[in-house]
Write a structure and sequence with these properties.
The protein has about 750 residues and is α/β, with parallel strands linked by helices. Among the domains are: about 55 residues, N-terminal domain of TfIIb (Single Sheet); about 180 residues, Dimethylsulfoxide Reductase, domain 2, CATH 3.40.228.10; about 130 residues, Barwin-like endoglucanases (Beta Barrel), CATH 2.40.40. It is built from 26 helices and 24 strands. The strands form six sheets. The chain has a seven-stranded mixed beta sheet. A six-stranded mixed β-barrel has the order 19-23-20-22-21-24.
Amino acid sequence: MASSTSFRTCPLCEATCGLAIEVDGGAVTRIRGDRDDVFSKGFLCPKGTALGKFHEDPDRLRQPMVKRDGTHVAVTWEEAYRAIAEGLLPVLDRDERAGGAIYLGNPVVHSLDMLLYSKAVTVGLGTKKVFSASTVDQRPREVASGLIYGHSGTIPVPDIDRTDMLVMLGANPMVSNGSLATAPDWPGRIDALLERGGALVVVDPACTKTAQRATTHLPIVPGADVLLLAAIATELVSTGTHRPVDEDREALERVAAALSAFTPDSVADGTGLTSAAIRDLVVQLTNAERPCVYARIGTTVTPFGTTASWLVDVVNALLGSLDAPGGAMFPKNAAGSKNTRGSGPHGPVQSLGRRKTSVSHMPIELGEYPVAVMAEEIETRNITAMITVAGNPVLSCPDSERLDAAFASLDFMVSVDCYLNETTRHADVILPPPSHLQKSHFDVAFGNLTIRNVANYSEPVLPLDDGGLPEWEVLARLASVLGGAQGTAADAAAVDAMIFEQLVSGALSAPSAPDGLDRERVVGALDDDAGPERLLDIMLRSGPFGDWFGLADGISLAHLREHPHGIDLGALEPRLPEALLTPSGRPEFEHPDLMGDIARMDGLLVAPDPSTLRLINRRTLRSNNSWMHNLEILVKGKPRCTMQIHPTDADRLGLVGGDIARVRSSAGSVEIPVAVDDGLRPGVVCIPHGWGHGASGTALAVASAAGGVNVNVLTPSTVVDPLSGTSQLTGFAVTVEPVG
């Protein structure tokens, strides 16, 4: 086989970096950054270079697995789908499908196939019990956006390339590569901001790698970001330095009036920041021509995650930075979304609390149950059967030991996953998708979050393994079996045809559809082959930059195939009110569900107990949640799963670097090596997430040897943001003591 170079987008995180992948003799020989990529321009992190190793990983599943006598054995696809039909359907039909549930993991949004076909699996399952990784860490942001803008996917992102002051709360993109703000090369973009004379302020309990590059680091008390944001809002209005657009001024001033108790002086104790530092921050923001406030996971996984997300937008609006170049702006997804269909700015009233879970009465928002209730729903037999798609909730969700035991009690479980890991070891059937290099790619989800409008399609780099199924067919067959069929290839095509017809109907009924568009034109312009490419072509051609099936100048899948390095569709442009779907046709800053949560903030105004340690977590550059730890190239070197602690706290507890400490919470305890670090705020300890491999029944040789502890053993599932149901993953109390 001749050598070749393929260009594709990295699917491992939100940065969407372009890759140049060299293949010789059917094997990957080198992966480097694609210097001609219109977005990433050659930037690449260590994870992207490991895609070839992931493809070759001997532990990656290549055949379906069925559990027999407690052991997973390889079987044919026909045997696997037969086992699902014979084992799962009777469990589901026993209570008219009320006991079925599904968990959709983070990789779903990184996969074209999974994003397009996983909904068919959910529909086939016939349940309303849907869980996803979104309810682990980002649901508060989505809920806030739904209330303010009328759609949960209308999320403002920082226009980092044009801002001259970026205030960043609870985010560390120098390591994470960004989140809910899709941008390759955050390090380079931050450097460019500073080189043009701009300022970067990082608000974080830890002096992260991003904070080390900042012009100012404010080491806030974990979970107190909502107080700081409220104080910024009140100070802007009280000093008369706010500058919102006229249409929103009165509403924003009423919001600030409702927040009047939260001033720089009143929040100083609760935030651990001086009132002078807060006022100085406000002065810097008002003096900046194009300021922007951006917040991420450190603010959303707190008991005030939704309220903090709302106040980020309130502050940006008060600064005149919402929907303005250099501020917080709204992308325009090339594949289309609800806010690009031309139906805005008016939409129905959005409200919370319409549905609650049956045991703890947690909110069910945006059609999904919070992961905080997954264990209790299984324990009470409200869930008896589970499907997991590309997720490892036993490591990634709160109260892990309880959840692990709950999964073991299920009557039947199916997993779509490429590894036998801590979660899938409980599965009765595992259906393995192909590796990333064996499937096409287009970032449908991240088009809603990108800091610049781009479009980039990637062809498969390598062929499927002998006997392997394309990912879309793995899911379509599963959906077909759940619907009562026998999982033949024809059934997969029928599922694809159903999705095809839905997308065609959506294009024809779009308010932005041009005159002369009819079904004959749409279908005639598309390929006949079933699969994700045909579906993507519909989305692109009926999207905001599309050619409308030949009726307009624009893009199509064929157009993207001619541009392997992507198409630059331009910088973000103001989109309000066009992108809105609200009753008033303006952002609903005074939404009663958000205003009603202000009173609860009073409890945060007291200074934290100096004798109580609070846990925060972190990620590392070479790690992608829990599933990149089985590659030696990414886990070798100095152990990274350590508990960081400030020297004063270490001295008080009699700990030195390298000691083993026992960390306890209300949920559980772990033992972990100590790393003394003066970059932490005193009173805070920090443990990375995603580790803790080695459970019996898994097949992760490298990850098991790497060890580490699962921080979610410590995470309680009982403390949540009441508006979204998202568990508190940061800032909760722990006790630490030396072991031995």
